[in-house]
Amino acid sequence: MDKVVDFDRIREEDNQARDENGVRLWVVKVMDQDPEAGKFGRSTEVKVKIAADHQPVPPPGIKLPGGITVTPVGFTDMTVTPYTDAMGCKGERKPHKCRARQAWSIRAGALVAPDAVESPAAVSAAA
After folding, report:
1. Taxonomically, which superkingdom (predicted)?
2. Are 48 and 37 in contact (CB under 8 A)?
3. Which residue from 14, 112, 5, 8 is spatially nearest to 57, judged by alpha carbons?
4. Which end of the chain is more exposed for a tag (fewer CB within 10 A), N or C?
5. What are 111's strand-pairing partners?
6. What is the DSSP letter of 33?
7. What are φ and ψ of residue 112, in 5° steps?
């Protein structure tokens, strides 16, 4: 879990980014355990931004054989926003080979233990 840095305020002591309501932004790197997630050379690591006044605390980890500790997490109030990542688009001639790609901004309301997240089936059954 790290703070999201506002690079426009990089020289200031408190340079943490804030959302539109002034709440501090945090980023957590998580690994998608779905076997389909890593297909075609894609990364299984995802960064999720969370707006919270204080640094969110992940649930306790689970010790696996071999001394590896993993921390399963869940998220509430997920929002996924598509955008164009044009960092690879540097062509000046027309036409040019642009390496822009579609990317995703992922935000969550909170970081919780996985058993605290309602499944979509449970939500639709309750409605």
Report:
1. Bacteria
2. no
3. 112
4. C
5. 75
6. -
7. -135, 170
Contact 58, 74 (CB under 8 A): no
Per the document, the length of the chain is: 127
Cα distance between residue 94 and residue 125, in whole Å? 54
Whole-prediction pTM = 0.76
- Structure token pair of residue 49: 């931004």
Residues 57 and 86 sit within 8 Å (Cβ to Cβ): no
Average pLDDT of the chain, as a whole number: 85
pLDDT, tens only, 71-97: 999 999 999 999 988 777 776 766 667
pLDDT higher than 60, residue 123: no
Residue 102 to residue 85: CA distance in whole angstroms: 6
Residue type at 93?
R
Residues 6+ positions from 37 with CB-CB distance below 8 Å: 44
Q: Which amino acid is at 105?
A: S
Structure tokens, 42 = 């894609």
Structure tokens belonging to residue 5:
């840095």
Which alpha helices (H) appear in the chain, and where do they start and end? Answer: 120-126
